[in-house]
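thought: fold this chain, then report.
action: predict
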Amino acid sequence: MSERVQLTIDNHVATVRMSRPEKRNALDPDMFDGLIRMGKRIIADKSVRAVVLHGEGKAFCAGLDFGSFLGSPELMQKLLSRGDESPANVAQRAGWVWQEVQVPVIAAVHGFAFGGGLQIALGADLRYVTADSQFSVMEIKWGLIPDMSITQTMLKLVPLDVAKELTFTGRIISGIEAVELGLATKVSEDPLADALETAKLIATKSPHAIRAGKALLRDAPGMSRADALKLETALQVSLLGSPNQTEAVQANMMKRAPSFKDPE
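observation:
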């Protein structure tokens, strides 16, 4: 069996590809394991400055492959287990690990992003989508609720009543409506190419500032006003006068491309 999730790194950009095209990249045990494993590999690789996440074949991810879990309570129990390194359980971490990654993650979405597939896309920082891509909080169809970190992602993107309407109905929305609602960043004719272009641009910036920016915008919304303002200051102080910040200033003054060092 080929790897469910494949990783390539080129010039500071990591590309993560879900590779189960014959099943529309539906989530089976190996797909859950692969997504988490690749996320952890990227976390450990300090040379990575941006990530692109996409699905091979005709869809981003069609959601949970129920058949792969039928008759195996042990596999279902594993999805609900959680360790010490993350607040998320295994099922949740397939989506949440992309927020644990310290650099920006861009999901390039085409075809279906249903149920768990949508929640994986929501774990990214940006979502570039085709106009005819399809999104659904589909768990209600199966008498369930979304439980793959959606409380930490979708609720930061759309008003509560919109989240409720999507969750209660499970209705399918297009990429165009997803952008209108705030679930997606922009419509693109070629989301993968555009995501890679943005990732390459991000990779030219100071890696310490990239990481600080993600930490600020990820963590501040859940803080009190005072703590969020303190976080701004603390992160800024950590950057001021640092080697990469000095290099950014010098490169701009000298009108040359900067040469940044990766975090240790």
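thought: worth noting. The beta strands are 5-10, 13-18, 50-55, 105-109, 112-114, 126-129, 134-136, 173-174, 186-187.
final: tokens above.
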